[in-house]
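Sample entry (75 residues):
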Amino acid sequence: MFFTISDNGIGISEQDLNKIFNSFYRSDVSNHPEIKGTGLGLSIVKRLCDLLNFKIIVESKQNERTQFRLFFPIS
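Predicted structure, serialized as tokens:
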């Protein structure tokens, strides 16, 4: 079973995708100062997924969309 979250926002560049789960990492901050945050949200989500044995996958196309999928283990 899985759950999908997606948007049609600014997307995440391919070189940033492997960093977005790092604490305090914010992608493309200088080009989008209007987007507020600390860079902790996705690192917390990743840590919870690891603790709960969920798998998380992210796909993104810059300037088009971002999609996260959470896969839940079936007991």
